């Protein structure tokens, strides 16, 4: 076949010559087939370069694919919170001021210490240095944080400037500071229960601080709109001057009478504004290490007590307002009342028939029980609800207790409640109810924010008649002149009021030597403007041989508060009645 195609045979022979030459050791002559060898070398070299480019591209593509895959994987994982709290700036809060513009709470800048554990070389050395500035630091807890390998952990929040400077001088690698905001309370313990507290993140957790958060501040903070310059100060109804007087007097009274606690409130009867309210023991909101102790309780709004004979104000007002009893009515208090296995006696019984004014000024349990009997069980319960005594009080302060009462009211319950045993309510609610008896019969829910009289009347409820209110003002004044309220009198201010000495329940029985004492005062009695209610929990006799009833402790504290604060409240003394008849007689 090759013979038939001579050209093909020649080409095949030429192609075999180089291979044969190499096999027999003969190099081809110059010009025989050199062009074919050079072309083959070029093709071999070009193929290797192209392969290297392809391999390089493949390596880079693999690296980027691995990074992208890792990012996608991490995006679907839950964040590791074990490394400590997230680093963020605390939000601003508005200032809190009293009715005269005095600052009660404000934001200040402070430094907080954090660490980056991944940059900590020697955790033991770091803690040893840090403890020279912060000796109270927990070694084990801090060690675990520094060895966690996290990117950020808090070590100490809200340092003093000196602490920050001292730590900076230590030069510990991996430590840093963040500027945060914290709350500062210039008045300290004075208004701690009213103003309240914030937590480490500057969020309100009690008192008016917590109330402010519920009014939209939390939403502003979450949205990043809580800018300090745009936040208007919150003005309270509190008068810091009067608040100082109240806190000072109840603290002195607690020590003087060796009571386990004491408290007081000053209330404007025309507007419902709380001008001052305090309870001791209390705490310093700038260093609230003991704020959660069991004896740290705002007893005025969050404490429930049987209020004793102060309840006779409501019993007498109820009887008069029902129309079934008048000021001239008389009740036989010559013999004790026996009902079931209980016997009702008078503490200082007169052993005779008493008029309504005498029932009040002699604080007769028997007479009060018979006033309640005249009204009836249903009417008695309805009247206390009408005055808000048995319902949870509505006000801005979050710490408000719900009163307790018998599940089923029986005759014995109505009788004991008539003189202040058998139901428990808060001292603040008692003050609010008494204010309604003094201001013409209008129940005004208390407020810790400023409010005008017109605003108060728009939400007030008429609960007793004008005549009943007038009668109760007379009885309060009479009791201060001739009854148990004599120790609360203050020259020039015509003070009236009612004592309350209640035996405390201990192990299910009324104790004979542990009392809860209260005194509710109103002044000036010709046109009452303010209610002052004081309490003393388990007071002791001031001196051997002296009594420990409300007249000798709670009444004295009320007088001291009025004496020191009346002029601050704008009440001018009037001595025109001091030497003349001050009371009218009801015929």
Report on this model:
The chain has two domains: 96-235, Penicillin-binding protein 2a (Domain 2); 243-585, DD-peptidase/beta-lactamase superfamily (Beta-lactamase, 3-Layer(aba) Sandwich), CATH 3.40.710.10. Helix 10 packs across helix 13 (377-386). The chain has 587 residues and is of the alpha+beta class. The chain has helices at 6-24, 34-75, 123-130, 139-146, 161-170, 192-195, 207-223, 240-256, 299-302, 312-322, 356-361, 365-375, 377-386, 411-418, 427-438, 453-459, 466-482, 554-565; strands at 96-97, 103-115, 153-159, 175-184, 197-198, 204-206, 234-235, 261-268, 274-280, 330-332, 337-339, 342-344, 353-355, 442-443, 461-462, 496-506, 509-523, 530-537. The termini are far apart. Strands 1, 2, 3, 4 and 7 form a five-stranded mixed sheet that branches. The protein has 18 helices and 18 strands. The chain crosses the membrane at residues 53-76. It is found in: Membrane. It holds the Pfam family Transpeptidase.
């Amino acid at each position: 076949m090759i013979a038939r195609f001579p050209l093909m045979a020649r080409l095949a022979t030429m192609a075999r010559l180089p291979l044969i030459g190499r096999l027999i050791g003969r190099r081809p002559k110059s010009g025989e087939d050199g062009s074919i060898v050079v072309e083959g070398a070029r093709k071999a070299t070009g193929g290797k370069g192209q392969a290297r480019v392809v391999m390089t591209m493949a390596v880079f593509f693999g690296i980027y694919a691995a990074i992208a895959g890792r990012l996608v994987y991490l995006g679907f994982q839950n964040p590791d919170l074990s490394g400590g709290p997230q680093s963020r700036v605390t939000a601003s809060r508005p200032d809190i001021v009293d009715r005269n513009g005095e600052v009660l709470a404000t934001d200040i800048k402070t430094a907080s210490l954090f660490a980056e554990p991944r940059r900590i070389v020697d955790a033991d050395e770091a803690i040893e240095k840090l403890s020279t500035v912060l000796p109270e630091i927990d070694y084990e807890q801090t060690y675990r944080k520094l060895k966690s390998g996290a990117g950020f952990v808090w070590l100490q929040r809200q340092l003093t400037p000196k602490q920050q400077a001292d730590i900076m001088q230590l030069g510990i690698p991996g430590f840093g500071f963040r500027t945060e905001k914290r709350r500062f309370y210039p008045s300290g313990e004075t208004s701690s229960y009213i103003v309240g507290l914030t937590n480490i993140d500057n969020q309100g957790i009690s008192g008016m601080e917590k109330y402010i958060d519920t009014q939209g501040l939390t939403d502003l903070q979450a949205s990043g709109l809580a800018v300090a310059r745009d936040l208007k100060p919150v003005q309270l109804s509190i008068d810091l001057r009067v608040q100082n007087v109240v806190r000072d007097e109840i603290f002195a009274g607690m020590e003087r009478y060796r009571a386990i606690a004491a408290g007081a409130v000053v209330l404007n009867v025309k507007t419902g504004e709380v001008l001052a309210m305090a309870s001791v023991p209390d705490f310093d909101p700038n260093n609230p290490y003991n704020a959660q102790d069991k004896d740290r309780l705002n007893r005025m709004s969050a404490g429930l007590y049987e209020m004793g004979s102060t309840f006779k104000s409501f019993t007498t007002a109820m009887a008069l307002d029902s129309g079934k009893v008048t000021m001239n009515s008389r009740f036989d208090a010559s013999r004790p009342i026996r009902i079931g296995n209980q016997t009702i006696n008078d503490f200082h019984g007169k052993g005779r028939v008493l008029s309504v004014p005498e029932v009040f000024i002699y604080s007769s349990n028997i007479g009060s029980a018979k006033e309640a009997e005249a009204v009836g069980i249903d009417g008695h319960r309805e009247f206390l609800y009408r005055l808000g005594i048995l319902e949870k009080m509505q006000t801005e302060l979050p710490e408000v207790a719900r009163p307790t009462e018998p599940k089923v009211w029986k005759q014995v319950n109505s009788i004991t409640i008539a003189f202040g045993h058998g139901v428990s309510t808060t001292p603040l609610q008692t003050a609010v109810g008494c204010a309604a008896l003094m201001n013409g019969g209008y129940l005004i829910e208390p407020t810790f924010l400023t409010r005008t009289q017109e605003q108060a009347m728009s939400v007030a409820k008429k609960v007793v008649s004008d005549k009943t209110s007038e009668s109760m003002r007379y009885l309060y004044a009479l009791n201060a002149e001739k009854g148990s309220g004599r120790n609360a009198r203050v020259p020039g201010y015509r003070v009236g009021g009612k004592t309350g000495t209640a035996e405390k329940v201990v192990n299910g029985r009324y104790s004979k030597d542990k009392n809860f004492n209260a005194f509710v005062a109103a002044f000036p009695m010709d046109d009452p403007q303010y209610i002052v209610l004081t309490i003393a929990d388990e007071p002791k006799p001031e001196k051997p041989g002296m009594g420990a009833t409300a007249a000798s402790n709670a009444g004295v504290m009320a007088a001291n508060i009025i004496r020191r604060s009346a002029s601050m409240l704008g009440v001018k003394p009037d001595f025109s009645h001091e030497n003349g008849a001050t009371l009218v007689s009801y015929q």
